[in-house]
Amino acid sequence: MLKSVGQVDSVRVVTLLDDYAGYETSFYAQHGIALLAEVSAQGSCRRILLDVGQAATPILHNMALLGLDPSSIDAIFLSHCHYDHTEGLVDMLKAIGKELLPVIAHPDIFRGNYIFDPFIRNIGITHKNGVEAIEAAGGHLVLADQAFEIMPGVLSTGEVKRKTDFECQGIGTYNLVDGVISGDTILDDISIVINVKDSGLVVLSGCSHAGIINIVNHSKEITGVDEVELVMGGFHLIEATDERISKTAQAFQKLNVNTVVAGHCTGLKACAELARALGDKFTLLQCGTTLTIPR
């Protein structure tokens, strides 16, 4: 637990990008995710963008439909290195148009990250979004592997403690560091935690490679707050076994999370099971999905 964790008055989370555009909408969808957290505290509002998809174009299109100005974004938070979360970074920085905009990530985010099936391919950050390109576009890198407060009441989880026995580590990707190839457990997977006054925690995740139940439990541990109001993002259960999906749904029931919103890499089977187990507490993520806490 951090020594002291602040509180915010409210947060509005807007889904700027997801794999699903939604029924009868004009949003652009793409394999990826981007969540905008608008955090209000002490009479001011700060906007943090979690992930930037594969390209800025659909995000900017959707922001225009929602009446949101890119220049209002105060920081970008990258949940991990994969292309569907990072490839739009430099173009988003250019659209935001600020100097020294904080880009928060894990120190290992720039490692070479590969798959070899069906053929060798880098799925991590490309040269287009390297350190020099980020800085040239106005970004200021803040790389930390430990939990810290981005502002009072808003935290990066840092590396998540992986304790849950049914949450598999790794998805068959490999790191290439100093000429050595090794299995990847995606330690750079980090999430945002927001402590909302009189409501509890809001947990926002990109892909949950650390395991979504691990992430929620870790969030409770570092904040010292037991109540969880909202868990939202991708849970990467698309290739999970039926047993893991079932145990994840059961764990959510025991955690007594008030609202679970899942999409992107969660998968149809897992979303169906979460909906069955959680009933009205579950919502399918899609472009434009917006939640405000407190309600």
- CATH fold-level assignment: Metallo-beta-lactamase, Chain A
Ranges with pLDDT <50 over ≥5 residues? none
| Residue fraction in strands | 25-35%
Rg value? 18 Å
Q: What profile does the largest beta sheet have?
A: 7 strands, mixed
Number of strands: 18
Could you say which overall geometry the principal axes of the C-alpha atoms support? globular
Helix content: 10-25%
Q: Examine the secondary-structure arrangement and name the CATH architecture.
A: 4-Layer Sandwich
- Give the count of structural domains: 1
| H/E series | EEEHEHHEEEHEEEEEEEHEHEHEE
CATH class: Alpha Beta
Look at the structure and give the mean pLDDT. 97
Strand numbers in spatial order across the main sheet: 8-5-4-3-2-1-18
- Tally the helices: 7
Terminal CA distance reads 27 Å
**Helix-and-strand structural type:** alpha/beta
Verbal overview:
The protein is 22% helix and 29% strand. By secondary structure, the protein is an alpha/beta fold. It has one domain: Ribonuclease Z/Hydroxyacylglutathione hydrolase-like (Metallo-beta-lactamase, Chain A, 4-Layer Sandwich), CATH 3.60.15. The chain has a 7-stranded mixed β-sheet. Strands 9-10-13-14-15-16-17 form a 7-stranded mixed β-sheet, covered by helices on one side. A 4-stranded antiparallel β-sheet has the order 7-6-11-12, with no helix packed on it. Strand 11 (174-177) and strand 12 form a beta hairpin. Helix 6 runs parallel beside helix 7 (268-278). The relative contact order is 0.17. The mean pLDDT is 97.
